Amino acid sequence: MTDDNGSAASYFETLLDEAAGPFVFHLDEDGPELVVEVPDAADVADLDSTGSVHDQLDLLVGEHLADVIAEHYARRPISELADLVDDIREHFGILIPPDTGWAYLVHEIDRYGDAIEKDLFTMPGDERLYDWVRDHPSNPWNRLLRLLPAFPEGGWYYAAIADDDERAMQRLEMEQRGELPKPSKRPSLVGWTNERELLTEAVEALAQIVHGVWGASPKFKGKGGKPPARRPRPQTARDRAEEYQALVEHDDISSQVLGSRYTRRIKTQEV
């Protein structure tokens, strides 16, 4: 699909066009039919910083058609023009903004929309991105943003963001500035089943066997290196509670032995 300038339309614009199509209306019962084409993705993103009804109208329908509409509503209550703008926005599924803002949503769908669609195909519920446009009031964009972290590990969406050099560089710079925490070296608790624990133990046992065989070989003369360490596991709340208790006991014993010379590592608090 191409836009009016002949350039390729963004994924977000294509989504709105296929799911909703143009908005068609009449200013008067006997007036000419007016057609509002799908707004540009950049104009939707600009809704984040656009408050007035007239500015929103310019973004949604273009300045020429906006002038025609504004002249027609000039002697009417501003609420009627606001209702028309809301109707246009609802038609295209952009009435209720996501908490992250339109610019973030447009960027996410433009960059990963194809991957998001493919993951939706594999998930229960038979949902499509079209649903967020066609049934916007009862299916807000915030729900899609909450759904993204639940996409399957190893799926299209996570593969797309893992292969995005620009995103990786941005996150790395934000981590260096302290705006984002560095990724944990531990695996997530989500998806960590008993079967996965057993597979991890099997890999550890195999590594120890390989290390023992190589270490016993006359060729290496006992210089096979250090034994392999345990692979990281998720940290549970109980793990943290047990670690905290151990630190409290260590502080208590050390303070009794060393008195005022010892500085407690943690402050005593209820778990």
Give an overview in words.
This protein is an all-alpha fold and 271 residues long. It is built from twelve helices and two strands. A hairpin with a 6-residue loop joins strand 1 and strand 2 (33-36). The mean pLDDT is 87.
SSE order and pairing:
Layout: H1 11-19, E1 23-26, E2 33-36, H2 41-45, H3 53-61, H4 63-72, H5 78-91, H6 102-122, H7 129-134, H8 141-147, H9 156-162, H10 165-176, H11 194-216, H12 237-258
Antiparallel strand pairs: 1-2
The overall pLDDT average reads: 87
- Return the structural class: mainly alpha
| Total of DSSP H or I helical runs spanning 4+ residues | 12
Q: What is the general shape?
A: elongated
Give the end-to-end Cα distance, rounded to a whole number of Å.
58 Å
Descriptive key words:
single chain; 271 residues; mainly alpha; 12 helices; 2 strands; elongated
Quick synopsis:
The chain has 271 residues and is mainly α.
